[in-house]
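Re: the pair you flagged

First of the two:
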Amino acid sequence: MTRQNIGRPVRASSFVGRRQETAEVKRLVAAHRLVSLTGTGGVGKTRLVLHAVPRLERAFADGVHIVQLAGVRDASLVPLALIEALNIRDVSGRSPVRVLVDHLQDRESLLVLDNCEHLADACSRLVETLLAETAAVRVLATSRHPLDVTAQHVLEVQPLATPTPGEPLPPRPALEYPALALFADRAAAVLPGFALTTANQDAVAALCRRLDGLPLAIELAAVRMRALGVQQLLERLDRRYRLLADSTGGDETLARHRTLRAAVDWSHDLCTREEQTVWARASAFAGSFDLGAAEEVCAGPGLDRDELVDAVAGLVDKSLLVRDGDAVHARYRMLESIRQYGLDRLREDGAGAEEAARRRVRDWCLDFVEECEERWFGPDQPELVRRLHAESDLIRSAFEFCLNTPGELRAGLKLAGHLWFFWFATGALVEGRYWLERLLAAAPEPSVARARALWALALMLLSQGNAGRAAPLVEEARELALRLGDEAEVAHTFFGRGGALLISGDYTRARAVYEEALALPPREGESMSLVGFKYVELAHVLAIQGEFDRAMALCEEFRQVCRTYGEQWIHSYLLRILAFAEWAKGDQVVARVHARECLRLKRAVGDVFGIGMTLELLAAVNAREGEGRSAAVLLGAAKRIWQDAHVALDRTPSHGPVRTEAEDGARALLGDGFKCAYREGLDLTSDHAVAYALGERESAPRPVLDSPLTRRETEVAELIAEGLTNQQIADRLVVALRTAEGHVERILSKLGFTSRSQVAVWAQSRRATRP
């Protein structure tokens, strides 16, 4: 299983200092299941964690997963944020917390929860549950205050060290005082050639002391080196901070808070009017945003679009906006301290200023997802999936706004209705159900938006195999759409109506529904994707009933439409039905061609469940062609997808027989070798499995021979074979000594050995026989 690092922001600037703290984070994570990094705002908790993460990755067989919580405002969304970060595609219908617990049950993962302070209670409850109900999950959290969880270890992140007043500086002060090194590094970024010298180091030291060694305050001050010399900078800061120093008394934490506030105040005063306006209005963004969103939300009275671009660039130059993304897709975000300051300034514009800004964010989200739905049936599907994932924090904040602001519920229903294709195509069913169920419960009044939300929820439930609950919802949607006279929404309900019957095994009635649907011409405003699904599902039923030629003809008919538009998602379903019919008829060569083409398209749009189904179909093709090993590997890879999603495939009529024949054929071809190849497939990620199925790689990255050991135990056995002691193994894997000892004891027990030398011989023999 490969390691995953989800949601890590791009760092444009270098990391300075904190060597000792980085080592301490590694040591604490190895020794404790929950480590909380605490400290005042601007002290660098997030920077420290992101610097430490690459040094922790190899210690966790199932990956390090970073969950950015700064943009999450509603405590109930914390489990959903983790589900997205872990890339869980679960169709079981369980609660988000249960989904997380079951997914992480036997995994060796590190969860990094960044910016927990505003969600402390929710984070504490979830972390306590995960630690209690999983075996090897560890959590590294950042927060201004410790979480309320027993057995956590707290590391308070201190400001960077600065020289004591009057203390003579050493010959190379930057080596001993990280605060000075940070200032010099950031100053050199805006003033090429700047370096600490005997002429300026005393002033830099005094400046860093005045800023209490707070990294964010130092960075904001260093940006001013573009216009001021060090002494000028110190003099201006000294005047501003003199009253501050007299007012804080002996409260060190309060002093640091006020120091940061004063540094940010000064940065604000030095911004142009346009930059100040963008700062305030952009603080309504919960998470990162792109320039297009900034133009819609921040431009307006007092700021036109041409001025906005320069203002955004100015805020980036002043380190008040952080540029993320890549050279093609630029995105921007604010550090939480900067964002909160901007909100304070926004509220100074009047009681309704913040609500108005959040409404503009909501309006932008609504326009954005409506445009995505309109463009979905076309060539841009992979890009739209990327964009929708990138905007997830903003979309969640828009839903929160609609649910918590009087008069906004219908807009929330409309937003959810436009997102059906994204949740459905990418398998984000847990999140889709969460918002649809909340909005439908809160807004019972009849409307077209409600009709669409009802059938969208039905689709989520059908994907989770819950036809009993989905059927009445889709009928309610149909009746409401008929009453409101919206023909497009009536047409949209055909897919759900037929799907409920199909899942229930009532093929005759399902066929009648889809025959009726295809007899009607598309209505104005009807989704072309749902038109396509009428062809897909009717062809599906026909193939199940053995009418292969007509099923294939229907697929080919709508494939022409997909080619015309450059569409990939519906096209992939049509290709899978074609491949299934060809396999059933005995044409394995063409079936393989279409199944592989299907996989390429499903990979492009991230359709994980479609990938799993197609891997099994390819396994069946390979088994009939006498390729037992590849069939077994693909079956194992599909099994991993179903395990992660908690899917029971026997409820789906066209999948059970395919999987059964593929497995029977592979076992007959391989005999005792089936287990080994199957386990190799289990160790493949979805991406690696697709690459293997397409012939882009010959095997899994590390073939796993038949063994009773887990992946981590196998790794420990290899280290034993290298002659490492338990302490050396613990150091190599960044785990506690007692953890390494436990692994060794379990290895001896599982293998029935009594000595480490036997384990070494066993590991060496595995290397010799590894394919």
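Second of the two:
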Amino acid sequence: MFKRIIFLVIVLLSLPQVKAQKKNQRKTIKTTRTNNAPKIDGLLNDKVWKNSEVITDFVIFRPANGELVSSKYQTTVKVLYDDDAVYISSQMNDPDPTGIPKEFAVRDNSSQADFFLVTINPNDDGQNPFEFIVQSTGNQLDAKISNGNEDFDWSAVWESAVSTDEKGWNVEMKIPYRALRFANRPVQSWGFNFHRRLENLNEQHTWTHIDNSVGRWTQYDGLITDFRNIKPPTRLNLYPYASATTNTFQGNTDFDWSVGMDIKYGLTENFTLDATLIPDFSQVGFDNVELNLGPFEQQFREQRQFFTEGTELFNKGNLFYSRRIGGAPIDQFSDERKNDGEFKDNIKINDEVENYPEKVTMLNAIKVSGRTKNGLGIGIFNAVTEKTTALVKRTEQTINGLDTVSVESNYKTILSPFTNYNILVLDQQFNQNSTISLINTNVTRDGRFRDANVTALDWHLETKDNKWNADGFVKMSNISDDLNNPNTGYTFDNSFGYGLGHWRGEIGYTFENKDYNPNDLGILFSNDQQTLYMNGGWRTLQPTKKFNWYEFYFYSRANFQHFSGIYTSTDLRIGMKAQTRNRFTFGGNINYETENKDFFEPRQGTTSGIYFLQPERKNINGWISTNSQKKLELNSDAYYSNYENNPKKEYGFSIAPRYRFTNKFSLQYQIEFNKTNNDQGYVTEDEGNIIFGFRDRKNYTNTISSKYSFSTNSSLSLSFRHYWGAVNYNSYANLLTNGKLYKNSDYMGSDVNFNSWNLDLNYIWQFAPGSQLIAFYRNSIFNEDTNSNLNFFKNLDNLFEQSQRHTFSVRFVYFIDYKKLKNIF
């Protein structure tokens, strides 16, 4: 198989090669060195701008593609540089300057406002530019781009200002060299493109034409030449912080404080060290916790800035789930692990942990990442967590004369040992569209606890004309555990795809064997599977009389168990989505899945041969989104599922209106409801039987989010979520060897009533570039009991009988640039 794959890749890469943008067709200008830096005030009256070459003749990028912009909305740009920074000015014509949308937002948050965007690619590789955005309000956003994907968690410190006059609006920008990565060469040419968004017209304009029928948008940069005698600066930025937190629960108040620092240091002209010393996660947002009755863990979004910023390289191969670091320790005392006989040391069946810890403390973490001028990306990540212990209560039965008595005792145990997490990534890019990556993750735990290692080779290869591609990976995991012999697992995926003009398509094969397990540092819900898959689609490239765009798509999968080769199911999807000229967006799809041999729901291990026969499913769903330019915007979706020859039924909907009261204040509410009648799922094991339940499930989720922006540097925001999940069991059944259920009248279980309530109130003030003061308040309540028959309002009354947790925190972060500090002293 591998020889065939290699042969096909060679054939693909040998096809006629024409780059998405021919070099001799590129727009090219010379930049101008200045000895007098312009004042960044948004007014384009500095003399230094007069001698700079004019960049203009913008074209429409979307919805129409390739048309020259009319003079009424034309844009002009100028670029200067000196020893410290690149300076950019733009004058954007608009016949109605007073009507330019200007909804306020704070740093790195977008809003309903026009914007000016510049991408800068010092290596001119067509894949990894830096992106800087200024909205018509003056708000800043920035991102690091890789293969067309924007990472807005990346942040730099730079300057900008805007103004409005009778011609339209203007912007000035100063991008310090510390915000970029470039080689130390005497004469340089950099890839540039400029974008302008016009909300009222629903248009985006660009300096160089981006052909939406082929390639990625980053492959169409223009070229700005003649950067002379500029040198990469010493890139040392310090972010010292101080925080104080109070936490009140059940009448007890705890106070905590912390001081620490984050460091960014340029090791070379292309590589950066990020380190966090004494990390502080006191103001992390709440997780959207839900009642989970399935066989797999719930995955949560990462909200800690250190793990979201600049992680593009570390996410290669999908082996890094950062919530593993500093999350709750593995529950060695759970009933499931006890039933499986997974005992560590002297743990016994009646041992129970007192006050199980919610997290493991992270001591420190570092990242080293960058990319050479030849396209080789190198990433090294390392984090250390401390040893976490807990008090365990043991209850033992002893004989005292003729009586059996219970004797309690306590002992301390290690729940999570001192642990080191490590990632190494080598990522070679070439041809402006292709990459091959080698990734290794390693988790080393002190003492008797298990160690884990995963290695992957990941590839995305395209012909130079961007028409054909091969995409895939091969990965191997190795786990060393005292309880099990070291085992090795592996997985493989490869697909061949086509993409040119209106059509896109892909066909491939993937599998994970029964021992593949990357979950010590990654996340995988299920292994021991193999799938043949195919997907494709057709899309418009230009707007029509009634639509800005529309597209159709489909996919199909044939699924098998890998261990036995048993066919398990086939699923199909056909769908479409579109946007009208009035910016009403809608879509939907129809799904079908055959009867499915589910080896995961019984919780017996996939090699046991025990499965549950999920019924044949037919599903339809759709969604709408109204014009976001209007004060009132509505997003909504709904679905319905029917199961063949089975009483199970599913349906649900969500409605999310958002109203913009002013350019400074907006409010959004969302209600989501899901109902399943006669759901069938695993409950427990009893007297050698695997017990399933017939149950009615309902979920309500209410969320509110609002913000008031005092300015682009100061805002107050509210985030609220109440989740209610209720389960009523109607009857119980034993799972038979043929995957079907047989009624069990003897087993008696309990209903489930699950509530999670969170409210966050945040005030953010950016009092200086890169520096913030954040005041944070949280109210949280959690409850789980058996009162599932309560109506909505009585359930709320029941919830508020529980103890509430109140958290208040203040955090101060200050940005220090080494170069400025050096100049001062």
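Confidence is low (pLDDT under 50) at residues 1-20, 336-343.

-B.
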